[in-house]
Amino acid sequence: MSNNNLIKGSLQTIILKLLEENDKMYGYEITQRVKELTEGEIKITEGALYPALHKLEAEGMLTTEIQQVDNRVRKYYSLTKNGQKEVSAKMTELQSFVGNLQRILDPEWKPGLA
Asked: 50 lies in a domain?
């Protein structure tokens, strides 16, 4: 599935939500978790992930911690208090967008109906 442009607009939300659920994660772990959750349908590249992580960090949404793991240095990301608040706002925004998109694609669609 080629959905890189669709993912680009949702990447920050995806990162924030994963960090909310997992406390702290390193970059590769984030890419693998997305791949696992989507059964390989969505693959986040390092070229997309790290700029998004750095932007969230610069905006005060994330904090970082360097740890030595098996002779490797890993940079773990976790949510700040502002980041925790932002998760709810981003999720609400994304859910609203998806609902509106669904109404455009299928005007007969009603929320809650299968």
From this structure: yes
